[in-house]
Amino acid sequence: MRRTLTVLAATTVAALTLAACGGGSSGGPLGGPAGASAAPTDTISVGSANFTESSLLGEIYAQALEAKGIKVQRHLSLGSRETYFPALKDGSLDLVPDYTGSLLQYLDPKAAQTSPDDVYAALQKAIQAPLVALDKSAAEDKDAVVVSKDTAQRYNATSIADLAPHCGDLVFGGPPEFLTRPDGIPGIQKFYNCTFKSFTSLDAGGPLTLTAVKSNQIQAADLFTTNPQIETSNLVALADPKNNFSAQNVVPVINSTKATDQVKQILNAVSAKLTTQDLVELNGQLTAPDPVDPAVAAKQWLTKAGLV
Q1: Each residue of 92-141: pLDDT tens digit?
Q2: Of the residues 66, 202, 216, 243, which has the fewest C-beta atoms closer than 10 A?
Q3: Backbone phi and psi for residue 274, each to the nearest 5 degrees, phi listed first
Q4: What distance in Å separates the CA atoms of residue 216 and residue 108, rounded to the nearest whole number?
Q5: Strands 131-133 and 250-255: what pairing?
Q6: Is 204 helix (H, G, I), strand (E, B) or coil?
Q7: Residues 6+ apart with CB under 8 A from 132
Q8: Which residues of the chain have pLDDT under 70?
């Protein structure tokens, strides 16, 4: 699923060397080897993937916890799931926002569930101690195969199935991990018999991918359904009739050692309030010509939701 920084090798290396740094709620990359120094027992280390929406959700979680007097360390925009999830397992991180379907397939590549409730139930079984998935939100952000309006019209394509006979003529772009994830290129090939001409490694749903598809450097892209620029840039998110992309509800994943009743109540309250339309509107604020700072956007949403 779903995320706007390029996954650079240097970032990945830095993020893999995870350990908690400095006290309080200061941000910044983690500074030591994975597992070398977990956050203090009275502090929750909040991380996120390296795309705008994930960082925003991490900030929402952090501020919601701080509003109730819980100490937080921020380590946002770390990298892909392949980077931050091992840090959760070894205790370098305590909490991240994730997406049910993508996380399930990461844990169980053979998982076939697609509906929100079925995916969440399977995730609860697949995730292993010490990690737990708290309440899922109604808010959903799915991956989508996106093309320009011209490309959609040229091939009379409203779905991935319509595009499939022409995939060999098209260059696909997306984050590096999309090339190997089960619901990425392998899934598109499996479900739609679609093999693209080539794959261009770009960013996770961000400006590089948008620029490339708008300028026809690539003809198809992995973008996220809560990205308001799909509509404003005259792009088309193709339907996925064979459900290659399963339900992708936002879900807090936390180390059980930090999941006190109070912490669970706070995070579950966020999940109960968050909607897909909220994500679209927040992403619009963060990607506008005069963008809102993520910390400000998070505070505004939490205030509006009555959570701070």
Answers
A1: 999 999 999 999 999 999 999 999 999 999 999 999 999 999 999 999 99
A2: 216
A3: -75, 135
A4: 35
A5: antiparallel
A6: coil
A7: 253, 254, 255, 256, 259
A8: 1-37
